[in-house]
Design goal:
The protein is an alpha+beta fold and about 130 residues long. The protein is built from 2 helices and 5 strands, in the order E-E-E-E-E-H-H. The chain has a 5-stranded mixed beta barrel. The termini are far apart.
Length: about 130
């Protein structure tokens, strides 16, 4: 069975290391799922997601000098197109502030904070007699 980049194949977990898991594919070939390709979430320990002898479905993401790179993470379905379009429209609907508007707001907030600090400092100095 010749594997090709982009194909989806099934295999068996034959080894687990701190950097990923080795998967035995058909035809005596072995590939590696790097720890970053195990799941969409942070993976601290591969053993939390995979077990020895477990059957897994993987996507072939690279073949380089006989080494086969695999991924479980890339198998997960992407969000439906309609949901992506709704999010894009929502982003466009937000009014954009110009740099000048942002700077003006920052300066106003900054001056208010400085006034608060100055009044607190003045009150403390009056009590201590400075």
């Amino acid at each position: 069975m010749a594997v090709q980049v982009g194909s989806i194949v099934e295999g068996k977990v034959t080894g687990i290391t701190n950097f990923g898991a080795f998967i035995e594919l058909g035809g005596g070939e072995t590939g590696l799922i790097h720890i970053s390709e195990v799941a969409d979430t942070y993976v601290k320990d591969v053993n939390d997601f995979l077990k020895l002898e477990q059957q897994v479905k993987v996507k072939v993401i690279s073949i380089d000098k006989g080494k086969i790179g695999l991924s479980i993470k890339q198998l997960e379905k992407k969000r439906p197109r309609q949901q992506q379009q709704q999010q894009q429209q929502h982003r466009r609907a937000r009014p954009k502030q110009s740099f000048e508007d942002k700077l003006s707001k920052f300066l106003k907030d900054s001056e208010e904070r400085q006034a608060d600090v100055k009044s607190t400092f003045d009150k403390r100095n009056k009590r201590s007699g400075f």
